[in-house]
Amino acid sequence: MNGTESYGERLTILARIGFAARGMVYLLIGLFAIDVARLGGQPSDNQGVLGSLSQSSLGSFLLLLCAAGFAGYALWRLIEAALDPEHRSRSLKGRLERAGYAMSGIVYGALALAAVNLVLRKAPAAEGSPGDRTAQGWSAWLLDQPGGQAVLVICGVIFFFIALAQAVKAYQGRFDELAADVPVPEAVRWAGRIGYAARAIVFAMIGWFVINAALHADPDEAGGLGAALRQLRDQEHGPLLLFIVASGLALFGLFSIVEALYRHVRIDGSQLREIARTARQ
Question: pTM for this structure?
Answer without folding.
Answer: 0.83
